[in-house]
Design a protein that fits this description.
Strand content: 25-35%
Order of helices and strands: EEHEEHHHEEEHEEHHHEEEHEEHHHEEE
Helix content: 25-40%
Number of strands: 17
CATH architecture of the largest domain: 2-Layer Sandwich
Shape: elongated
CATH class of the largest domain: Alpha Beta
CATH superfamily of the largest domain: PAS domain
Length: 391
């Protein structure tokens, strides 16, 4: 509660004014106000008048309002406080009360800032109370505080690292516990550190152009995979999702980074890449034909041997009936389907190669089961031709 300057004025017959005109003018002024106004009698602790705005806020009709007292429009818990204010007004002081709870007829409450002005009229000491409904402002402030609490909880308890950074310098303004765990630095240590200091130097050249685009407004956010240098000097892979924290037409000041440790994923990807490389090299140098087909017998993969002797690059998506017309293709196709049905077939096949030679092969065809997917057909053919040439 803050006291404002005292405003006291008296109106009496000695002023030489016509009282009816003054009273009518005062009522007109009060009625046309956009704020809620109540005039109260200090001595009798009763209401004298109120404008339509105030009565609408309270939910009372004119007749109902004439029968209520000042204590009726406030919660009972602050009854003593309201009485104290009347006493202060009676002494000629004036008050400004913030966030005063006001009780409606239906029992609901709204909040108002109240300015009180004490004056005398025909030897009566009156208080003119001006109520400004601040409920929308308080609700907005409440929602803002709730939103800030939700953000703080999200920030602190997020399963991913979260960092707020000064965009121009790269200094950490705030980080959550998960980010601290990812980097190995304490939150206090990170407050004296820049993002550049924990980023692998080879990755800075990819990171900096993205920040420049963010600052210039070319992009609103970006995602990047990069390496951090942990406090223990271990390199880890992370995925950063970065977005600016400034509004449109506002100077860039800070940005937020959502950080996920993807080291395990990268390790699996590297292992997979190495496995694929080993498979590719094995197939490239295997001195025999090897292939994979789908359940309909169409070629999905053929190794270098098949390409060298039969131009297998053209085989993908076709079955042997397309590649070898007539009885040869038909017999090979039937063997493929039988191997898929039974799980294994061993056959001898003779084929014309690109060098116009007939090459004879012992071929093992086998089913490749897959979980929740159609089975595949694998095949390995070893040449058994007489006078076999080097492969």
């Amino acid at each position: 509660m803050n006291k404002s300057r005292i405003i006291v004025f008296k109106i009496s017959k000695k002023n030489g004014l016509v009282m009816d005109d003054i009273y009518s003018s005062l009522r007109l002024l009060i009625e046309n106000s956009l704020d809620g106004i109540i005039v109260s009698d200090i001595d009798n602790k009763c209401f004298v008048m109120a404008n339509s705005v105030m009565k609408n806020w309270l939910g009372y009709t004119n007749d109902e309002f004439s029968k209520i007292l000042p204590k009726d429009i406030h919660p009972i818990e602050i009854k003593d406080y309201i009485n104290q204010q009347f006493e202060q007004f009676g002494k000629g002081s004036t008050n400004f009360i913030r966030e005063l709870p006001v009780l409606r007829k239906d029992g609901t409450i709204f909040y108002a800032d109240l300015s009180g002005i004490q004056y005398s009229l025909l030897d009566r000491t009156l208080v003119l109370g001006i109520f400004k409904d601040i409920t929308p402002r308080l609700l907005a402030e409440k929602e803002l505080r709730a939103s800030e609490r939700r953000f703080q909880l999200l920030f602190e308890q997020a399963a991913m690292g979260v960092a707020l950074l000064e965009t121009e310098t790269g200094y950490f303004l705030n980080v959550n516990k998960k980010f601290s765990q990812i980097t190995g630095y304490s939150i206090e240590e990170l407050s004296r550190t820049t993002i550049h200091q924990i980023t692998c130097i080879e990755d800075l050249e990819h990171d900096q152009p993205m920040i420049k685009q963010l600052l210039s407004g070319e992009i609103a956010e970006y995602h990047i995979e990069k390496r951090y240098i942990r406090k223990d000097n271990k390199l880890i892979w992370v995925r950063e999702s970065v977005s600016g924290m400034w509004k449109e037409n506002e100077e860039p000041h800070s940005h937020i980074a959502i950080v996920e440790d993807i080291s395990k994923r990268k390790e699996i990807e590297n292992q997979l890449a190495e496995s694929e490389e080993r498979f590719k090299l094995f197939m490239q140098y295997l001195p025999a034909a090897a292939y994979i087909k789908d359940q309909d017998g169409r070629a999905l993969f053929a190794n270098s041997y098949l390409d060298k002797y039969f131009g297998a690059k053209e085989w993908i998506g076709q079955d042997v009936r397309d590649l070898f017309p007539g009885e040869v293709g038909k017999a090979m196709y039937e063997a493929d389907m039988k191997a898929l049905e039974l799980g294994y077939q061993k056959v001898t096949e003779s084929l014309y190669a690109l060098d116009s030679k007939v090459r004879k092969y012992e071929t093992q065809k086998f089913r490749i089961p897959r979980k929740n997917k159609p089975d595949l057909l694998g095949g390995i053919s070893i040449e058994i031709s007489e006078n076999q040439t080097d492969t």
